[in-house]
Design brief:
By secondary structure, the protein is mostly helical. The protein is built from 17 helices and nine strands. It has two domains: about 110 residues, no CATH class; about 180 residues, no CATH class. Helix content is about 50%, strand content about 10%. The strands form four sheets. The protein has a three-stranded parallel beta sheet. A two-stranded antiparallel ribbon has the order 1-2. A two-stranded antiparallel sheet has the order 3-9. The protein is globular, with a radius of gyration of 24 Å.
Length: about 400
């Protein structure tokens, strides 16, 4: 008799299959195995001659329709789809679906919040920004080496479980990467721009993201890969991470500004297709000096007429006039982009909040999701305010304090 997880895998529910595969393992390991199995089972969209790959919506088929990971809500559990499948399933399939439902009932029961008047929706809606720069500079192979070295030295169970889970995720990423390569290898076009792009992508993806990027194109291909790997959340500090690659290639005549703009435009389209979130451009470097470059301009021009990402231009008193011109020209297209963030005041408030943020890390400040303050590659933020019923707090406070108050300051 087949196990529940193998039956779920045959139904295209790879994430759920992975979650049930190690029922006695700690939660982090069960989750990591689920991510691995999902990545191993993802069917990439057909390659159509685009500059980047993957492209378009991340979820295009019926895979993981019942249970899927979500960067904001941890998971998306579609009970209606489970019941629909169960109604026409075989006895073995129905048992596997019931096992999944029981597992989700158990974990959701343990995680449910007590119903008190001051909590509403939200309950920790979260976002994160991967360390794109480290991946494109070092490659994921270096991550695997560090994880394996850590695992060899780990003594505590918690650390061992976490590191083993990281190996699961890397194994899944490698499998998905292999599927992307296979799709490019089996797709052919007559001599054309599409065929040239296919061959260029093949060469790039044979290098990245597991080995360091050698040029701007490889760096952006790796960046795009990590964006999809992370669930299409936040692009982060795109110009700051990619500018050194562009400047070197441009100086050597390898790439033009127009080509860089077209590549960024396609990346923005991928963000838009997945309703991805925030990218912060411009502002300062790790030494506090102005860090506007050609890619800042390319990011602004590429955003004309776009809906996403939430593009945040960090403005300073020494921001070049040409950046102002490009920003205002982009605003004039009616997109609402970019938002203008007064960097000097913003960073002053972060310093005064005494959050322990290193000065060099202030260059990586980026909105996460809408505009939650985050440090690119270094933080994960839960929007707890979405779970607090502030109007009710105000009403209750006024009911208690207003009858006896003699001044507004007393109420405040």
């Amino acid at each position: 008799m087949q196990s529940p997880h193998s039956i779920l895998a045959s139904l295209g529910e790879n994430f759920a299959a992975g979650y049930l595969e190690l029922p006695d393992a700690p939660p982090v390991r069960r989750w990591s195995r689920a991510v691995q199995r999902r990545l191993e089972g993802v069917r990439p969209a057909p390659y159509s001659g685009t500059r980047l790959y993957p492209v378009g919506p991340a979820r295009t088929g019926g895979e993981d329709a019942i249970l899927a990971p979500s960067y904001s809500f941890t998971w998306s559990f579609n009970r209606g789809e489970l019941e629909r499948r169960a109604a026409t399933a075989t006895d073995e399939q129905r048992e596997a679906l019931q096992a999944l439902r029981g597992a989700m009932d158990e974990i959701e029961g343990r995680l449910s919040q007590p119903g008190i008047p001051h909590t509403v929706g939200g309950n920790g809606y979260t976002h994160s920004i991967p360390n794109y720069g480290r991946v494109i500079r070092e490659g994921l192979d270096s991550y695997q080496e560090r994880v394996q070295q850590g695992l060899a030295k780990a003594t505590g169970q918690e650390q061992q479980v976490f590191l083993a889970g990281m190996l699961d995720v890397l194994t899944g990423a490698r499998a998905w990467h292999g599927r992307l390569l296979a799709e490019l290898e089996r797709t052919h076009f007559p001599p054309s721009e599409a065929e040239d792009r296919r061959l260029r992508l093949l060469q790039a993806l044979r290098q990245v993201p597991f080995r360091p990027a050698r040029n701007f194109f490889e760096a952006l291909v790796a960046y795009n890969f990590v964006f999809y790997l992370d669930g299409c959340d936040n692009p982060g500090r795109v110009d700051y991470e990619l500018e050194p690659f562009y400047q070197r290639d441009h100086a050597e005549g390898v790439i033009s500004f127009a080509e860089a703009e077209a590549l960024i435009r396609e990346f923005w389209q991928n963000v838009d297709a997945n309703s991805g979130w925030s990218a912060s451009i411009g502002g300062c470097d790790g030494a506090g000096q102005a860090a506007y470059g050609d890619l800042t301009l390319a990011c602004l021009r590429a955003a004309r007429g776009m809906r996403r990402p939430n593009l945040q231009l960090r403005i300073r008193r020494d921001m070049p006039d040409e950046v102002w011109e490009e920003a205002l020209n982009t605003v004039a297209t009616g997109t609402g982009l970019p938002a203008l963030h007064h960097e000097e005041e913003f960073l002053r408030s972060l310093r005064e909040a005494d959050l322990g943020i290193a000065e060099a890390d202030l260059a990586y400040v980026n909105g996460g999701g809408c505009t939650e303050t985050m440090i690119h590659g270094r933080s994960n933020v839960g929007s707890l305010d979405a779970g607090i019923n502030l109007p009710l707090v105000l009403v209750n406070t006024l009911a208690r304090t207003l009858p006896s108050a003699t001044s507004f300051e007393e109420i405040l």
